[in-house]
Amino acid sequence: MKIAIITGASSGLGREFVRQLGGNSDLDEIWAIARREDRLLELQTLCSVPVRPIPLDLTKVESFDALTALLQSQQPEVAILVCAAGFGRIGLTRAIPSADNDAMIDLNCKAAVAVTTAVLPYLRSGSRVLEICSTAGFQPMPGLNVYAATKAFLQSYTKALHHELLTSGIHVTAVCPYWIRDTEFIPTAQKVDQSGFRHFPLASRARTVVRWALADSRMNLWVSTPGPVCMVHRLAAKFIPHFVMVPLLDLLRRL
Ligand SMILES: NC(=O)c1ccc[n+]([C@@H]2O[C@H](COP(=O)([O-])OP(=O)(O)OC[C@H]3O[C@@H](n4cnc5c(N)ncnc54)[C@H](OP(=O)(O)O)[C@@H]3O)[C@@H](O)[C@H]2O)c1
Predict the structure, then answer these.
(1) Whose CA is nearest to atom 11 of ligand 1?
(2) Ligand 1, residues at Cβ distance < 6 Å
(3) Which residues in the chain belong to E strands, given as ranges?
(4) pTM, entire model
(5) CA of 76 to the centre of ligand 1 (A)
(6) Per CATH, which fold does 2-254 belong to?
(7) pLDDT value at position 30?
């Protein structure tokens, strides 16, 4: 059985990955993971490929045992893994509750690593892994501090994995989008402190980001910047020293 596994499938980018991969006749099933089972059940209406809803809270250790057990019992070939589950909290560091910081680290870092580790034995030559990072991970970000740090972690992890799996023919890509306007990410991120970022200029759309990310993963890029704004951001973070870039981003977020 050849499958795709997509975390964060109940909304936003994850849901869009299910939709865009859902017409792929090479796949026998799409395994869709998130907490909201009702949303996962709706996904079948978007796809011709059968969707298996797997309701799991990826901040809970027992969820990885459940996923590992399911993989062991089904022995699938995982053609595509997308780790899109993630969330952020906008606000100055002192305003973000410790529990939210822990949850960001648990979901954005630990869960992505645990899911990838569980799936690794089921990848074959030609399989593809997409870890959804962020342009926030290209440099430290005042007003989005812990979130940006989690995405820097995930980007580093993904690049090393890309290199380790290069000779086995497995493509691993760190997808680094800029703000996306039509997902639940921004309203969720603003729940604690709306003053961190007030405007999201030039925000992209989930459909474009996913199409671009899938094309970059086919080309085996280790970093995907899915859109012109992400590309400019990546170049700026590479060539402008962080002691200049960080105050600049702090200024921009206050405008
Ligand atoms: N939108 C942006 O501006 C933006 C920019 C750059 C990067 N990103 C990254 O893109 C990824 C997807 O975000 P999005 O924009 O699509 O946001 P979204 O619409 O809020 O989707 C987040 C997904 O994560 C799932 N999730 C949250 N907590 C979970 C948990 N404890 N266990 C399992 N699943 C959980 C949610 O499902 P349930 O609530 O049903 O569990 C949902 O399906 C994230 O990693 C985000 O950091 C987003």
Answers:
(1) 84
(2) 8-14, 34-36, 39, 57-59, 84-88, 107, 132, 134, 177, 179-180, 183-186, 188
(3) 2-7, 29-34, 51-55, 77-83, 123-132, 171-175, 223-224
(4) 0.97
(5) 25
(6) Rossmann fold (3.40.50)
(7) 98
